[in-house]
Sequence to fold (553 residues):
Amino acid sequence: MRIGIVCPYSFDVPGGVQNHVMDLAEALIALGHEVSVLAPADEDSPLPSYVVPAGRAVPLPYNGSVARIAFGPVSTARVRRWITRGDFDVLHVHEPLTLSLSLLAVLSARGPVVATFHTAMTRSRALAAAQGVLQIVLERITARIAVSALARKVQVEHMDGGAVEIPNGVAVAKFAHAEPLPGWPGECGPGTGGTLGFLGRFTEPRKGFSVLRDAFVDLAPSRPGLRLLVAGPGDPDDLFGQFPAGLRDRVTFLGLVSEEEKARMLRSVHLYVAPNTGGESFGMILTEALAAGTTVVASDLDAFRRVLDGGRAGRLFATGDPVALRDALVDLLDDAAARATLTDCGDQVVASYDWPVVARRVLEVYAAAIEATDGRVIDEEWVGPG
Amino acid sequence: MPGMWWAVGAIVLVGLVSTYLVWTAGRVERLHARAQSAARALDAHLLRRAAAAAVLAERRYGVELYAAARIALDAHPDEREAAENDLTRQLRAVQLDPVDPDCEAVVAASRRLALARQVHTDLVRDARAVRGRTLVRLLRMGRGREWPRYFDIDDPILTVPADVPTG
Fold:
């Protein structure tokens, strides 16, 4: 199958959508399909061979954050040329409702269009004001994919349409075989040692870092050797300032990490802790931690409960409760067998998130979109194992 | 000469209005054609599922499932939704065996059918929405084409015991 994928955000900056697009493209290529990805990028920036740069992206404040996007007559011409040259069987756009290459591609497309919605944003005010325009964009889309139950709910309730829920994939092999950082995770036995991990913006309240900090500060004095490994954007002073002076040498801060370092970091801890207090629509980091074979302790949010199979693949604790978290940590750090039971189940769960599996489900949606456009059914070989 | 500007203005206005009308007519046509294609694809997937179920029923599950599959295959358009729902119920009632290739085929056909149903519903909704617009109704655009019809069946997706996808 000839597949054209449009990524709205520049590959110059790392981000969830960009990673998703790259992993999906690589998984589809590995299954024997021809893939071309159009993304905003400078002509001379280093890109994988399947990416076609569509020119430099300009920063634009959007929905409370800064998006780097490409839009305008020049971009339109490039999108049209790419579509004409590509002669794609199916066009797959990501986040088509942002002002971006994706929107341009939807409006320029003639054949079947599949759209993936990543964020669970409710209709923004600008979009609500432009209801007619929104409808014109949406009705050019043949099939819709939502990456989380929440994103799907938004589709159903606000955009008048169904969407197939296909979760984010995770490159299981990359995480499963990553080398732990030297000297980590170290010893862990009953009453002593153990390493906890946290990844994310520790200054953002809904990431719940303060819950983990309280549990750590409570537990560390009575548990010699307990360490905390933190990665994510932020100022080290803001992090260490939250801990009493005596405990600071037991906290290690990695700063912002790359994808490879993230995999190594997840392999370097006994327990990965996700103390989020809300706002998570999927819980990508949990599937990554499971892929790394690390035991997960997470707050009891709907999204996390779903990923962790109701608690069989990881321990859930009452959201926002440091005491409940501390108890869960003690239980699991003392009991290697319990950790092994959880990670065994985690392996099974994460297999359904592995990119080859997810990419096959995406291919079935491509087939459905193509069939709905020309009315003929595609043979199984197109989407079957191959 | 103010009169000329009136004329120019009127011509531009007529041009804009007719462009809009032509564009809208094209849109109505396109959405109807697509809803029709989706209906054909849905039909094909319904037949595929029923055929796969009949093959499976002949070999292992016997007469009730076989009868449901036959009825779904032969159903009159008015009774088809009920017949397909009945087949879904029958398939859910039997214990599917994930390692049997015939069961696998039924599960895969059901999954493809679920996608076809989803896409068809969305496209019919789009077509009906544009058909229902006042301007489209007033100018009777899309006459000669029937209103696209929903095909109202339950989600046909099947869950297999020990639902671990094999990569």
Observations:
- The interface with chain A takes residues 27, 31, 34, 36-38, 40-41, 44-45, 48, 108, 111-112, 115-116, 118-123, 125-126, 129-130, 164-165, 167 of chain B (CB under 8 Å).
- The radius of gyration of chain B is 24 Å.
